[in-house]
Backbone:
């Protein structure tokens, strides 16, 4: 049974979606005003793994991620780059999609944009006013937090600490937050019953999530910084509007840190995804990102990335050594080693699922895969022979489970991979005719292309170093 840590209750709970085997999942997407950094990658790679795993467990998942394309940061940056907010958002949305594609994050089903839902937001705000949860003041509209009894139930902060960051004499209570903001000079604006202006940030997620997924979502996610005020305010607005429970499971990822501080644009301690992928492979970055449980903070460092790369290379060796094992016709295999491997395969499968079912414990799941890889490597490096079909099963399982974590991204099926196989066959022939000068030259030249070649007792394998 899949269990999730629900930030609403502060407990790990059985995951039971509202509708049997259907999951409605909404993740707060980026504010598209700049390049994404690897703090963002942590959040989106984690939710990508969650999405992949829910599908693997047989759920029919609808996954929505919004794009925030109107807020103070967008407006400021559009001025700086001399672009309209639409041009700016288009530019950084495209870059965000490019980064996510490189990281092989599966696409959400839909990426609604705030500026395309302004009339829906105005309608929602009108109803909140009619129901007595919001009030107009000097061209602004605020949500009156006193009117919503459960305000603070997600962040569980004392009521006095639930302070909104924007102070204004137009508010009845400093805790009230803006649903609609009166137009300021040089800012984009829309017409509304309260005059020209633009929506506040929080209302977009309430409106877009319920528009595409219905009043109650199964999972709503984001980074821990979104718990308050963003998600607290989303709950207040949406539940006041619909009268129903908004989200069944609230999930928040911990921060990616640099010197123990949150990686962020404002602290200027960030590395963009693009920068990191110039030096590291997407598999390397993903393997690093899953090596800590998603709720815990994790430190970004070259050393930690190197460690992940070492883990990955052992997987590559195991995958390569066991690839196409079924093509080998060798009946002279060890029965006891085969039995042991068979047991390990079953054990790996069930332990991987147990680990992932336990609130997506990716580091533990990874360690089970490492055990299987270690065993494959031990067998192949000693030149021992197991039943080829069982070795093939071990290969398939490693590949399948690693693919849920998204750490093995390329299957060796492309033409260039086949060409490397062919070059290595020629090298093998050179070795057989004792032309070691040629065989070493081939290996060295492949090394220069960052392709590692390893001679095992029964076969030669290769993998990409980065
Ligand atoms: P933003 O575009 O800043 O709203 O961030 C988009 C998502 O990335 C939000 O869910 C943030 O909580 C998350 N995020 C931003 N920085 C980090 C970080 N350093 N570590 C983990 N998640 C982050
Ligand atoms: Zn949001």
Residues:
């Amino acid at each position: 049974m899949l269990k999730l840590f629900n930030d609403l209750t502060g407990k790990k709970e059985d995951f039971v979606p509202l509708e049997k085997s259907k999951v409605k999942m909404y993740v707060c997407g980026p504010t598209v005003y700049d390049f994404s950094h690897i703090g963002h990658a942590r959040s989106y790679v984690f939710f990508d793994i969650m999405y992949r795993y829910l599908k693997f467990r047989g759920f029919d998942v609808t996954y929505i991620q919004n794009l925030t394309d109107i807020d103070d940061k967008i407006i400021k940056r559009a001025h700086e780059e001399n672009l309209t907010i639409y041009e700016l958002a288009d530019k950084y949305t495209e870059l965000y999609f490019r980064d996510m594609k490189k990281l092989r994050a599966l696409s959400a089903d839909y990426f609604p944009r705030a500026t395309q839902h302004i009339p829906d937001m105005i309608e929602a705000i009108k109803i909140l006013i009619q129901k007595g949860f919001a009030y107009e003041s000097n061209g602004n509209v605020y949500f009156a937090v006193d009117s919503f009894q459960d305000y603070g139930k997600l962040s569980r902060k004392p009521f006095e600490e639930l302070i909104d960051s924007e102070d204004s004499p137009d508010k009845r209570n400093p805790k009230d937050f803006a649903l609609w903001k009166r137009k300021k000079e040089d800012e984009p604006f829309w017409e509304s019953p309260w005059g020209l202006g633009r929506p506040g940030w929080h209302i977009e997620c309430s409106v877009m999530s319920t528009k595409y997924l219905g009043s109650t979502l199964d999972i709503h996610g984001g980074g821990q910084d979104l718990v308050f005020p963003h998600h607290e305010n989303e709950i207040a607005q949406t539940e006041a509007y619909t009268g129903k429970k908004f989200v069944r499971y609230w999930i928040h990822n911990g921060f990616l840190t640099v010197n123990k501080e949150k990686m962020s644009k404002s602290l200027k301690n960030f590395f963009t995804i693009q920068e990191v992928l110039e030096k590291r492979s997407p598999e390397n970055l993903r393997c690093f990102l899953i090596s800590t449980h998603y709720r815990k903070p994790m430190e970004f460092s070259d050393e930690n990335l190197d460690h992940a790369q070492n883990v990955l290379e052992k997987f590559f060796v195991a995958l390569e050594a066991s690839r196409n094992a079924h093509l080998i016709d060798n009946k002279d295999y060890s029965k006891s080693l085969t039995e042991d491997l068979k047991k390990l395969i079953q054990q790996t499968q069930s332990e991987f699922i147990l680990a992932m079912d336990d609130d997506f414990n990716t580091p533990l799941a990874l360690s089970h895969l490492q055990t299987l890889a270690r065993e494959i490597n031990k067998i192949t490096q000693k030149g021992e022979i197991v039943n080829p079909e069982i070795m093939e099963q071990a290969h398939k399982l490693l590949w399948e489970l690693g693919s849920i974590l998204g750490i093995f991204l390329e299957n060796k099926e492309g033409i260039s991979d086949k060409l490397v196989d062919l070059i290595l066959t020629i090298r093998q022939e050179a070795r057989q005719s004792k032309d070691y000068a040629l065989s070493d030259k081939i290996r060295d030249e492949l090394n220069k292309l960052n392709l590692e070649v390893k001679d095992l007792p029964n076969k030669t394998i290769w993998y990409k170093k980065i």
